[in-house]
Specification:
CATH class of the largest domain: Alpha Beta
Radius of gyration: 22 Å
CATH superfamily of the largest domain: Transcription elongation factor, GreA/GreB, C-terminal domain
Family: Belongs to the GreA/GreB family. GreB subfamily.
Order of helices and strands: EHHEEEEHEE
Number of helices: 3
GO biological process, one term: DNA-templated transcription elongation
Strand order of the largest sheet: 5-4-3-7-6
GO molecular function: DNA binding; RNA polymerase binding; translation elongation factor activity
Pfam families: GreA_GreB, GreA_GreB_N
Shape: elongated
Organism: Sphingobium jiangsuense
Largest sheet: 5 strands, mixed
CATH architecture of the largest domain: Roll
CATH topology of the largest domain: Chitinase A, domain 3
Structural class: alpha/beta
Number of strands: 7
Helix content: 25-40%
Distance between the termini: 37 Å
């Protein structure tokens, strides 16, 4: 089954690659060493180091598979190369204002790069979907669990 295209910034892809390399090059070899040492100690059924090590190795292997799938499905999009910087597309940093003129700045990034505390929202988040293609002065309605909320696009910028 083919995965869904995973839009991601170059920095986000580098972070995925770094995590994959760290797990494969550092974490997994340490666990393999512990499991090998523990296996040599005899009875494996009551050997905590062996049992924990095998469990941790399965977790790491699962993480490696997930990261490999994300990287395979990744489509790296460099926001600095966006030709139309007057509209909201992937990688845009957007300042929006609600009905009460409360302003908020968000950056539309890949779903694997989200960090709401830093204002980085995933490309498929409801707010990001509503903002796609908008220009300064456009009003966009976002459907949220608490109800609809309207935002005005105040400013759009891109890195670079």
């Amino acid at each position: 089954m083919q995965g869904k295209t995973n839009y991601i910034t170059p920095q986000g892809f580098a972070a995925l690659r770094a995590e994959y390399d760290r797990l494969l090059g550092e974490e997994r070899p340490k666990i393999v060493e512990i499991v090998s040492w523990a296996a040599g100690n005899g009875d494996r059924s009551e050997n905590g180091d062996y049992l924990y090590g095998r469990k941790r190795m399965r977790e790491i292997d699962g993480q490696l598979r997930r990261l490999a799938r994300k990287m395979k499905d990744a489509r790296i999009v460099d926001p600095a190369r966006q030709p139309d910087k007057s509209r909201v597309f992937f990688g845009a940093t957007v300042t929006i204002a609600d009905e009460d003129d409360n302003r908020r700045t968000v950056t539309l990034v890949g779903n694997d790069e989200t960090d709401s505390g830093a204002g980085r929202i995933g490309w498929d988040a409801p707010l990001a979907r509503a903002l796609r293609g908008a220009g300064p002065g456009d009003l966009r309605t976002v459907r949220l669990p608490a109800g609809e909320k309207e935002y005005e696009v105040m400013e759009i910028s891109y890195p670079g």
